[in-house]
Write a structure and sequence with these properties.
Layout lengths: L3 H15 L4 E6 L18 H9 L4 E7 L2 E6 L4 E5 L4 E6 L11 E7 L3 E6 L5 E5 L2 H11 L11 H9 L6 H6 L9 H11 L12 H20 L40 E5 L2 E5 L13
InterPro entries: DNA_glyclase_Znf_dom_DNA_BS, FPG_cat, FPG_Glyclase, FPG_N, H2TH_FPG, Ribosomal_uS13-like_H2TH, Znf_DNA_glyclase/AP_lyase, Znf_FPG/IleRS
GO molecular function: 8-oxo-7,8-dihydroguanine DNA N-glycosylase activity; class I DNA-(apurinic or apyrimidinic site) endonuclease activity; damaged DNA binding; zinc ion binding
Pfam families: Fapy_DNA_glyco (PF01149), H2TH (PF06831), zf-FPG_IleRS (PF06827)
Length: 292
């Protein structure tokens, strides 16, 4: 699933291409992608016509991201929100093509200049329209925690959020979108490795310096991932179809059984917080006593 760095990379690529353009035609090829207002898909027979009508001739004034969602803000105040889920893609074509859309293209937005396509092989993603951007902001305030790339993501704010869950594992806490938004399985493993913290340790066992290390690691890993265009492991690509290159810099994710690039120990794999987790037992000892 595309995480914060992937969605941020897509948004940064689309901003200069979409801002100032208007939607002149919307073609929905798969109605299951169109959701009602809210975070959950609520498809009805009238959803597609209402979706199309609400977006026609709307001028895009901003492109942004919140957690793992992308959004377009229009001059009228409306807001189009989307989630890529497992296999979603946002693709941009500068010139109008006469060829038929690819087999996984679900929605086509023809713009005053260029075309934006939403593709999704497994069709888990969704698109929805909010009448006002403030409605989307209200949803975000209730559903999402700290934004790791924002100025609000301070060591103190981060520690305060975590300390409310002393018995929860580090991995489970970092995956909770109401604590820190945008982190998924890939970057959780990478963050824990950089911070030298075992992902299975309970939050209550972390020392102050370890909380600071986690905070620093989150910012470092996510910013580096964005700089490299994210991690193209499965279906994820940038709007121009190119792959992100951060997967080449992964230290532990997907590398279980291989040598640790820091200490040469064999990387381990364990199920933590319901997710397959890669880590180095030597660099990230599970027992707190080992750290004393």
């Amino acid at each position: 699933m595309p995480e914060l760095p992937e969605v941020e990379s897509i948004v940064c690529s689309l901003q200069p291409l979409l801002v100032g353009r208007s939607i002149v035609r919307v073609t929905v090829l798969d109605p299951r992608i169109i959701a009602g207002t809210g975070n959950k898909r609520s498809w009805t027979s009238g959803a597609v016509p209402a979706f199309v009508e609400s977006l026609l001739y709307e001028k895009i004034v901003a492109v942004g991201r919140r957690a793992k969602n992308f959004f377009l803000v229009f001059a009228s105040g409306k807001c189009l929100v989307g989630h890529l889920k497992m296999t979603g893609q946002l693709l941009y074509e500068a010139r109008k093509s006469t060829a038929l859309p690819g087999p996984h293209v679900r929605v086509v937005f023809e713009l005053s200049q260029g075309t934006l396509l939403y593709a999704d092989a497994r069709r888990f993603g969704y698109l929805l329209v909010y009448p006002r951007f403030s409605d989307w902001e209200d949803v975000c305030k209730k559903a999402y925690g700290l934004e790791p790339l924002s100025n609000d993501f301070t060591p103190r704010a981060f520690a305060e959020r975590l300390k409310k869950k002393p018995h929860v594992s580090v991995k489970a806490a970092l995956l909770r979108q109401d604590i820190v938004s945008g982190i998924g399985n890939i970057y959780c493993d990478e963050v824990c490795f950089l911070a030298r913290v075992h992902p299975g340790r309970p939050i209550g066992s972390l020392r102050t310096e370890e909380l600071r290390a986690l905070h620093t690691a989150i910012k470092t890993v996510l910013r580096e991932a964005v700089r490299h265009g994210g991690s193209s492991i499965s279906d994820y690509v940038l709007p121009d179809g190119k792959k992100g290159s951060y997967a080449y810099f992964h230290q532990v994710y997907g590398r279980e059984g291989k040598l640790c690039r820091r200490c040469s120990a064999i990387l381990q794999k364990q199920r933590i917080a319901g997710r397959t987790t890669a880590f180095c037992m030597k660099c990230q000892p599970e027992c707190f006593d080992f750290l004393l």
